[in-house]
Inverse folding.
């Protein structure tokens, strides 16, 4: 599916829940940061994931800290590379983003599992993210 089709499917909640995995979350973050910049992209990402989760009856699945931390990692990767031709090229040069457990290098499981981290941005407790753009 082309980026525009993928974005429309997520934003309109027509993409099946079973077809939205970690790679798709990273792809969505890449699209938003690439097209709208970090600030606006982060806002759209949060709104889209909340709407998508609500549509699929999973409002409790939204996690503010995880969403923002992945946006930071994607932003950092985009800032430190030549603009990739497509998402596959971006992921190929930033393979750590393909690992759904990459945030474990920055956050303890206890912190990520906390209600505070789910509801609002909580900074990492193990080590700083490589880049923390201002919101």
């Amino acid at each position: 599916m082309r980026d525009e089709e993928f974005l429309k499917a997520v934003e309109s909640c027509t993409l099946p829940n079973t077809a939205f995995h970690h790679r798709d979350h990273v792809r969505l973050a890449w699209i938003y940061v690439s097209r709208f910049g970090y600030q606006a992209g982060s806002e759209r990402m949060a709104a889209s994931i909340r709407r998508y989760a609500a549509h699929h009856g999973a409002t409790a699945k939204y996690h503010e800290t995880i969403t923002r931390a992945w946006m930071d990692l994607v932003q950092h990767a985009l800032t430190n590379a030549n603009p990739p031709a497509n998402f596959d090229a971006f992921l190929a040069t930033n393979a750590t983003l393909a690992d759904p457990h990459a945030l474990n290098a920055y956050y303890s499981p206890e912190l990520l599992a906390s209600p505070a981290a789910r509801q609002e941005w909580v900074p990492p407790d193990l080590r700083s993210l490589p880049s923390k753009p201002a919101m």
